[in-house]
Amino acid sequence: MEQKEIKKIEKIAKKNGIHHIDGTSILIINHDKIRYNFKRFTSHLPRVQPYYAVKANSLPEIVKTIYDLGGSFDVASYQEFLLINRLIKNLPLEERQNFIWEKIIYAHPIKNEGTLNKLNRYKPLIVYDNEIELKKIKKYAPNAGLILRIWSPNTGSVVELSNKFGAEKSEAVNLIAKAIDSGLTVEGLSFHVGSQCLNSVNYTTSLENAYNIFEEADSRSYKIGHLGHGDRKRILDIGGGFPVRYNGKEKRFKKITELLNNSFDRLFSEKEFEIIAEPGRFMVANSATLVAKIIGKATRRGKTIYYINDGVYHTFSGQLFDHINYTLKSFKKGPQEISTIFGQTCDGFDVQSQATLLPDLDLGDLVYAESMGAYTNASSTYFNGFPPAKIIHINQ
Ligand SMILES: Cc1ncc(COP(=O)(O)O)c(C=O)c1O
């Protein structure tokens, strides 16, 4: 962040009460950055319709900004589905139904029966990856359109998902066949290369796999996709995983998009395929800056320890669940020394960093961390009774 922006962040945090004796930390979300990320995504991947993965940050204000940009949505629960449904509640019935069909995907491969039951009347697009799920869908949500999630290599991605989801290549067409034979509609295939994917081979291998599965289904005369405007369009859902720069070093987004565009042209003609993606992190990570306050200080065995009014049970929960290291910086300048930073709870596990370079800080001094918009406040708790960070939206 440039100095001017840093000063602005400090001013906003002060204006919003961080210096109050009970003040929580403050998470400042800049909606201009979300708009920039959305446009960057669509300009580098012109054939891809982005379905924002709401789980990355489900604040209604963020969802609204993406809605206003014409975005679509990937939801992981009925609650997230309702969040989007609320945005369209004033549309006429038919438009609402079209929006649900064209702009929402329920991308969690496992759904409980109650969820399927409630979703059925919306005729949604939903994902499955195994036969037991298929039977559940047949029973509780037969009106849904199905997307089969195939296994994808997650090698070198910061967050691996391939241990949990994805049909094997060898069983994929049988799962498509079982769905179609039982009277359900299969609309396409999806995969997820793992979140913060720094290895483009995960994408290219998954695209080749998807291509082969579409071909095999064709050769066995299983028709994927519905007829729209006279053509049968099939959905290729390339999931999320698009990397962001946490340390200013990861430069892979542009390179990945070049490879993706080449593969799309080679394997998936525009006439036959509609390509969608489920970016979460990419849309929101760099939109948020966290400002926290020093609430305690000690020296132990010659090393300075700071306690801040946030921590791994709160906005820094991404350090555990999302495996990201956020760098805490100081607004104050001065000679720096390696310090330990603990969170506000009583738990010794609540350590933000054992080695951060900071100047000599006093109680009440402010520190900040950038790129804290994805998988951060989303997994914050009330542990020890401490409330989550106060959220401030700017450029909404
Ligand atoms: C099914 C699905 N889609 C999309 C995403 C978003 O991924 P990312 O934030 O890496 O873009 C996730 C993340 O866990 C996911 O599970």
How would you concisely characterize the structure shown here?
By secondary structure, this protein is an alpha/beta fold. It has helices at residues 3-15, 31-44, 60-68, 78-87, 93-103, 113-119, 131-140, 169-181, 201-219, 252-267, 281-284, 318-321, and strands at residues 26-30, 48-53, 72-75, 104-106, 125-128, 145-149, 157-159, 185-190, 195-197, 226-228, 231-237, 273-277, 288-300, 303-308, 328-330, 336-342, 351-359, 366-369, 390-394. Bound molecules: pyridoxal-5'-phosphate.
Structural summary, described in words:
The chain is α/β, with parallel strands linked by helices. It has 2 domains: 3-29 and 286-394, Lyase, Ornithine Decarboxylase, Chain A, domain 1 (Beta Barrel), CATH 2.40.37.10; 32-284, TIM Barrel (Alpha-Beta Barrel), CATH 3.20.20.10. The chain has 12 helices and 19 strands. It has helices spanning 3-15, 31-44, 60-68, 78-87, 93-103, 113-119, 131-140, 169-181, 201-219, 252-267, 281-284, 318-321; strands spanning 26-30, 48-53, 72-75, 104-106, 125-128, 145-149, 157-159, 185-190, 195-197, 226-228, 231-237, 273-277, 288-300, 303-308, 328-330, 336-342, 351-359, 366-369, 390-394. Strands 1, 13, 14, 15, 16, 17, 18 and 19 form an 8-stranded mixed sheet that branches. It has an 8-stranded parallel barrel with strand order 2-3-4-5-6-8-11-12, surrounded by 6 helices. Strand 13 and strand 14 form a beta hairpin. Helix 8 (169-181) packs across helix 9 (201-219) and helix 9 packs parallel to helix 10 (252-267). The chain is elongated, with a radius of gyration of 23 Å. Pyridoxal-5'-phosphate (PLP) is lined by residues 53, 56, 74, 107, 161, 192, 195, 239-242, 278-282. Pyridoxal-5'-phosphate binds at residues 53, 56, 74, 107, 161, 192, 195, 239-242, 278-282.
